[in-house]
Every structure is written in structure tokens, then in C-alpha cells.
């Protein structure tokens, strides 16, 4: 998979993360047990995943990605349940700070969830993170019945990166980061194409609970 983000795109990555922060800030305790586009995950599960992934990627940017504790959702689950907006915002600020460090695009990120000893240049690792948080931000917003609005330039930059993610039967395997791509009906804008390629139905609602999201 050829996927990279450049220095100019760090700003649009930041936009995506901050947009997700604003959405998560609207979460209330009564929302946490609700379903999400990620099959089998409640909103608590999804927010714990999103929070710990921020922490894990921040650790990887600083050279500590091999520490599996940094990637364990159980380490943040109680804090997410107690204060979802604040806990998530703190983790988002941490990863944005880590990704703002000089030389981050050339740094070596250890990402153990990608396989034993998996290492990627920062430009690729941050591209992974960028794509995930477009999908996850939408997941949260859709779970709440709220819009997830991104600027056109952000969506346009994301689309070729997303389409570089291969599709195939392997996406059906346990632990695959994305479900199989799903068709998107007309007129289907760029964000809908992104969601469909990442295994989400843009028409998903909490009552219908269809589609599969990122594990």
C-alpha cells in the first residue's frame, strides 16, 4: 500500500482530529451504551478505541510505540465512561502535539497492531491515522444523529489515500481494520465514497444498525 502524508497535509489532519473533538464533546452519559457503525461496539467501546489510538500513535511518534500498554483500550475505558469529551480531547491534544514535532514525517513509528515488529515512516503512519479519524469521527457523529462536516479540501485530500487501501476477501478476516467496501448510490459525493470504501454505508442509522466499521 503506497500511502503517505506530506508536511502541507499535516494541517488537514489537524482539522479532522479537531472536528472529531467537537463531535465527541457533545456525547452525554446517556449516549454511551448506544450502537455505532462499528459492528458489536457501543459508543463507549468506540470512544475507548479512538482515545487509546491517539495515545498509541503519540507514543509511536515519540519512539515508544512498542509498549503494548499504550494501545490497550482497557487503560482508558473508565476515564472515557466518566468524562468522554474531556478524556478524548486530552488524547487528541497529545497526538497533535506529538505530530507537530520537527522531523515527525521521517521518524520511524512502531505500530504493533499492524503485526509483530511492524514499523512505518511517520508520513505513512500519520496517513493511517488521518484516514481512521475521518471514519471514526463520522462513526461518532452518525451514532449521535449529528452531521460530520469537513471542508472540501480535506475530503479531496483524503479520497486518494483512502482509495489506496486495498479491498478483498481478507477484509472479512477477524482483526481486519476495515470491512469489505460497500457500494455507494448516486449521487454519492467524495465523503460517501470514502465511507463506502472503508466498509461503511453512508445511510447507516442507529436504528437500522447496518454496516461494519473499523475494528
Report on the structure:
The chain is built from 7 helices and 2 strands. The longest helix is centred in the middle third of the chain and has 23 residues, at 122-144. 46% of the residues lie in helices and 3% in strands. With 215 residues, the protein is mostly helical. It has a two-stranded antiparallel sheet with strand order 1-2. Helix 2 runs parallel beside helix 4 (84-99) and helix 6 runs parallel beside helix 7. It is globular. The relative contact order is 0.17.
List keywords for this structure.
46% helix, disordered C terminus, mainly alpha, single chain, globular, two-stranded antiparallel ribbon, 215 residues
| N→C terminal distance | 19 Å
Strand arrangement in the largest pleated sheet: 1-2
Task: Encode the helix/strand succession as letters.
Answer: HHHHEEHHH
Q: What is the CA-based Rg, rounded?
A: 16 Å
Number of helices in the DSSP assignment: 7
Kindly state the number of beta strands: 2
Assembly type? single chain
Sheet bearing the most strands, described? 2 strands, antiparallel
Which percent range describes the beta-strand content? under 5%
**Helix/strand class:** mainly alpha
- Global geometry: globular
Spans where pLDDT lies below 50 across 5 or more residues: 210-215
Helix content: 40-55%
Average pLDDT confidence is: 89
How is the secondary structure organized here?
Blueprint: H1 10-24, H2 43-61, H3 77-82, H4 84-99, E1 108-110, E2 119-121, H5 122-144, H6 152-163, H7 190-197
Antiparallel strand pairs: 1-2
Helix pairs in contact: 1-4, 1-5, 2-4, 2-5, 6-7
